[in-house]
Amino acid sequence: MATTSQPPRGKTTCKKIFWAVFPHACFILSLVIYAFLGALMFSHIEGSREVNVSEDYRTFLQNLTYLARKLSDNVTENDEMFKDDIRELFNTADPLWFINPEDKWSFFGSLFFCCTVFTTVGYGNTYPVTRVGKYLCMLYALFGIPLMFLVLTDMGDILATVLSKSYNEFRKLQSKILASKLCSGSTCSKRNELKSRAQSKIVINEPLTIMEVLRSQSGMKQRPVKYRNVELFEMLIARENENTQPARNKSMERWSSCPELAREKTVSRVIKNFDKIGKELEKLDVPIVLMVLVIFVYISCAAAILPNWEKNMDFQEAFYFCFITLTTIGFGDTKLEHPKFFLFFSLYIIIGMEIVFIAFKLGQDRLIVLYKKVISFCAEKNMPSKKIYPK
User: Fold this and answer.
1) In angstroms, rounded to a whole number, what is the distance separating the alpha carbons of residues 289 and 320?
2) For 70, phi and psi rounded to 5 degrees?
3) Residue spans of alpha helices (H) in the chain
4) Residues 6 or more apart in contact with residue 270 via CB below 8 angstroms
5) Which family does it belong to (predicted)?
6) In contact, 391 and 317? CB cutoff 8 Å
7) Fewest CB atoms within 10 Å of the CB: 200, 208, 215, 338?
8) Which are the contacts of 357, defined by CB distance < 8 A and separation ≥ 6?
């Protein structure tokens, strides 16, 4: 008989890992490619625009020249009035007059702008000026924001799985520690001995059919261990399911002899992975206090690192900037001198937005539960009491 060579286990494991990671890598890679294409587009459109000297700019220069002459001629009698005039003049100035488009709309500057668009942060210090750039910005956001939300949902499943497993393991460890403290050594040893003796005496004789179980009821009553009806019913159902299931065709399990079947099986697994997006996030149930603590630690780490290259920020200002960024508020009151350095923190921004999103979702679930309790309490309070009439 001809034997088919099976692939080694190492290659099979690598393939399983690859197809399990493929959906997540596909979303992240799509977002990265989308950001790079947007950076090239906006740097070409906004960076190569012509700067036209407007009439407002000429008027601004004339007024500035007049105030400079007054200062040089020492004509100013009141310094406060002169400061007010300077302040009022610069309030009318347009920031675009003093910025070179090629410097502002470089590749890294455009990439930073694209990240602020599809993450819905929108600081406001960088925005398109040309009409074509504005139209393309709307179109870019129309496709980029759903892609960003898809990446957030996908990464939310990973973070939800990690958080739930970590929290469950912590609860198990905490329960074991409490059990070891409450239970004395002699009592626990005696209890373990009794459990081991009881388990050694238990013998489960599973019959093949329900009729044989019913016939052996009298014999089961004489045994020292008595089963509950629910446990007995579950054993019967499990036994009957094993007997009624059709026998597997062993030839079909040898996927190496039929590559077409193996390919269809792999494709179906990948499609199921896409269909499971967002399911783990819906099942997440951890305390909201824990999520607030995670957010505080996460922002504090970035706030401690960011002032190293942003010299105009201290820890408090950097903490405020990171919070405004991760919550997608983006006032724009705090500006970055070196946005391309912070751009390397794009992964930090995406993960941080996901953590904040999880915290908001948990808070939303808690609010829904609270509203339900309040409405139920008000409904029960306003219900008319039943009057009992004497017979």
Assistant:
1) 20
2) -65, -35
3) 9-47, 55-72, 79-91, 101-104, 107-118, 131-182, 185-201, 210-215, 217-221, 229-244, 259-275, 279-283, 288-305, 315-326, 339-343, 346-382
4) 19, 22, 23
5) Belongs to the two pore domain potassium channel (TC 1.A.1.8) family.
6) no
7) 200
8) 152, 156
Place of tokens 């942060």: 121
Cβ burial, residue 224 (10 Å; 0-12/13-18/19+): exposed
Angle between helices 259-275 and 9-47 (to 10 degrees): 50
pLDDT at 254 (0 to 100): 45
Please give the structure tokens belonging to residue 86: 């300077």
Global model pTM greater than 0.70: no
Q: Can you tell me the distance from the alpha carbon of 375 to that of 373, in angstroms, rounded to the nearest whole number?
A: 6
Structure tokens at 356: 């904040």
Residue 207 has pLDDT above 50, yes or no: no
Would you state the pLDDT for residue 225? 47
Phi and psi based region of residue 246 (left: phi greater than 0; alpha: psi -120 to 50; beta: remaining): beta
pLDDT at 342 over 80: no
**Domains, the chain, with CATH or none:** 15-54+94-163+283-381 (1.10.287)
> What pLDDT does 320 receive?
94
Is residue 145 packed enough to be buried (19+ CB in 10 Å), middle (13-18) or exposed (0-12)? middle
181's tokens = 């403290």
| CA gap 338, 313 in Å, rounded | 12
* Contact present, 60 and 90 (Cβ < 8 Å): no
